[in-house]
Amino acid sequence: MNIKKYNYPTLLLFTSLLLGACDDNIKLIGDPVTKLSNECIKRSLPVAPNLVGYEIEFAYAMAIPPELGKLESAQVTASFGGAKGTYFDPNSYSTGNSGLDVPVLVANESATSGNTTSISFIRDTCAATLRYYYIIPEEARGKEVNFTFSVKASNGQTAEYKMGPYAISKMDMTLEKKLTSGEACYLSFRNEGEAFSVYSAEEVAANSALASRIDLVYAYNSSADLTHGFFAADSPEAVRPGVVFPSGFSNQTRMIKVYSLRDRQLSNLNNSQHIDDLDFRQLDYGKATSNAVKMVAEGGLWLETADGQYRAFIFINATATDTVTISAKRYKM
User: Fold this and answer.
1) pLDDT digits (tens, 9 = 90+) for 279-307
2) Which residues are 215's β-sheet partners?
3) What is the mean pLDDT of residues 64-93?
4) Of the candidates 282, 304, 281, 280, which has an alpha carbon nearest to the alpha carbon of residue 291?
5) 231: part of which helix (H) or strand (E)?
6) Which one of 73, 252, 282, 286 is most buried, by most CB atoms within 10 A?
7) For residue 313, which of 271, 285, 272 has the smallest C-alpha distance?
């Protein structure tokens, strides 16, 4: 996976010093800004997959020499309109002496029309760095998205900056759901829009059709070899003492257990591992013969549904007596 490196020009130094008020005595390092200029960087994790429903964050910096005018408006147009929650932050940011972000309100609330999100400056300023948050829409799943940022100054000058393309993953991701042995213990990886669903024993008992959608059963047994166990329908009774399967549960889900894979998006741990679409396509599930696995905190589990339509990776966020908290990514084949 290629990681693009950006050169931070004088513009970003300029905006971090000005914040919202222009000072003719500011001294720049390097080449001075002689016209309306702009620069953009992607603030989101550079190698993390871009997932539908989650955000891509940018920092858009703009500056014009004070003698030429002020910033008037800015906008960004995406090749796919952002989902609900897409917006420009009306604050300009710089880094304070403590190393923390310092916000200064410089614009009104942003407005989105179609594929374009725009903002107007309400404070006389010749430099600003605004943050733009793009929520990835369902329409972009499995495709690429491009962005065109642009700024207009009071003297009529304009400038634009293009970003992308960014590949949008086909995966779904669901974070930190709790499973409880004997209660909310039935997992399905077949519903649209989420990596997995959790059903209670009561729900499955009341709806016989649900049993055909269950892929795994979670159960806790303090005295068993599989203390925190995940079981497919073909798990023998000998390895699941006391675990009762729902009537009609027949999916022979294939599993591969791993202990060294800590996906950053699933685990929220500070590491550089990321599962992407290619990992799901390339993994050899022909070697997945497990029908019951024991899991521990920060362990992982690859799986493929019995019909081969879905592949997933489960990460164990935490364990406790009778419960586990899990996150997962899912890929539709």
Assistant:
1) 999 998 877 767 889 999 999 999 999 99
2) none
3) 97
4) 304
5) strand 228-231
6) 73
7) 285
